[in-house]
Specification:
single chain, mainly alpha, globular
């Protein structure tokens, strides 16, 4: 995500270390971390582009095949917070290498899956890696770049995920179409092995990257508004996945176009996500809620455009761009809200944010599969996304403005004349 989305997390980590650090090659460390996020993003988003391929090969319906996508999201929801807690005291370098190894195993099992049940289990295992990798990556990025630069460094690391939506996912889909859906997961394995080698070579060996207790962070889970914001994110962001998961059938079934256009549509969507991420980060810097409210409200318009006019390629492609852009506008604000409600628990809130986004992934895929299953047509998944996002917007309006996050304590001293109370 944008710097703003993880600023609190990175600041909390970078202040654990002094200015003298052991990394003479911070750029290479950052590249290694970003290569890992690129591999993770390519595997996650690439699965959506090959869903029709593995559904056909495993002889299951498209709605049933979406459970493999949902399983990955559930893996993130469960695995991100759990691994963050269980591995709290492990050195971050060692944790990153373990996570890359687990990611490789999950994708190998995905490529070898002979049934939908095995694929679902493999995608669940693979998903447990994501949130913990990003959290550990934040620690390492903040360390090698030093105080004042951790947020910028981690934004660059997260850029690997953005590149995955624009290049990795379309490329993985293209490989799947040429060589079979299993080949896509094997390509992800190769990228992950390269990332693991880069991490081993360029992440410094130092006790400064040792873990620490998360007992204080766990206390944040007792705060009701943390769970409310998680629900707002899970419901609202789900429309992005109610669309993205079904881009392949949109192209082939709804518009009657060649499957060769699927990677192009995925790339258009990813480009919209990249643009929206940058806009959303700037909004999160300047305004408390505008990024979230604007993103949720605007995406409703483009979901209607897809549902009513998406059978035309000239309508569908621009609408895909704007769905990706408007939804990504909201995500940095969600992370800022979470860390504002629990400022003492930034690392865990980073994991919770990713869990919320993957709750959205699961809800979007499930909502879309339900409307497909009852025969409402391919483009009806956009209506499922609209209902879910509208529910998130209503929940936000009823809660967050009424119970805003606490403001940082103001310094003591005489009040300025004319200052707002």
């Amino acid at each position: 995500m944008h710097t703003a989305a993880y600023r609190s997390q990175c600041e909390a980590e970078e202040h654990r270390h002094d200015a003298s650090r052991a990394g003479p090659r911070p750029g290479l460390t950052l590249f290694a971390l970003a290569l890992g996020t690129f591999a993770i993003g390519t595997g996650e988003f690439g699965s959506n582009g090959i869903i029709q391929l593995f559904a056909s090969d495993l002889e299951v319906s498209l709605p049933l095949a979406t459970y493999a996508v949902t399983a990955y999201a559930v893996g993130v929801m469960i695995g991100s917070p759990v691994i963050t807690v269980v591995a709290a005291r492990y050195n971050r370098r060692n944790l990153l290498l373990f996570l890359v190894g687990l990611f490789v195993v999950g994708n190998v099992l995905s490529a070898l899956s002979a049934s939908l049940g095995m694929l679902i289990a493999a995608r669940f295992v693979t998903g447990t890696v994501q949130g913990a990798y990003f959290g550990a990556g934040a620690v390492v990025a903040a360390y090698v770049y030093g105080p004042g630069n951790g947020g910028r460094a981690f934004a660059t690391v997260m850029g690997g995920l953005t590149v995955a939506t624009i290049i990795g996912s379309p490329l993985g889909t293209f490989v799947g179409q040429l060589a079979g859906w299993r080949a896509m997961y094997l390509v992800v394995v190769v990228i992950a092995l390269l990332a693991g080698a880069a991490l081993m070579a360029w992440v410094p060996r130092t006790d400064a990257l040792a873990g620490s207790s998360v007992a204080q962070e766990l206390g944040a889970l007792r705060r009701p508004m943390v769970w409310v914001v998680t629900a707002v994110a899970g419901l609202g962001i789900s429309s992005i996945f109610a669309v993205y998961t079904f881009i392949a059938p949109y192209i082939t079934d709804a518009t009657g176009s060649s499957p060769a256009l699927i990677p192009i549509a995925l790339g258009v969507f990813g480009l919209g996500m990249a643009v929206g991420n940058q806009v959303g980060g700037r909004l999160a810097d300047r305004f408390a809620y505008r990024g979230l409210v604007s993103g949720y409200a605007l995406v409703l318009v483009f979901l209607v455009v897809i549902a009513l006019g998406g059978s035309s390629l000239a309508v569908l492609l621009p609408a895909l761009f704007f769905v990706g852009a408007t939804m990504m506008m909201a995500i940095p604000t969600i992370q800022v809200l979470l860390t504002s409600y629990a400022p003492e628990a930034p690392t865990l809130m980073g994991a919770v944010n990713l869990a919320a986004l993957n709750l959205a992934n699961a809800l979007g895929a499930i909502g879309g599969s339900i409307v497909l299953g009852i025969g409402l047509g391919t483009l009806s998944t956009a209506w499922a996304g609209l209902v879910l996002t509208l529910a998130g917007l209503v929940l936000f309006a009823l809660t967050v403005p009424r119970f805003p996050p606490p403001r940082p304590a103001a310094p003591r001293g005489p009040a300025r004349a004319g200052s707002a109370s």
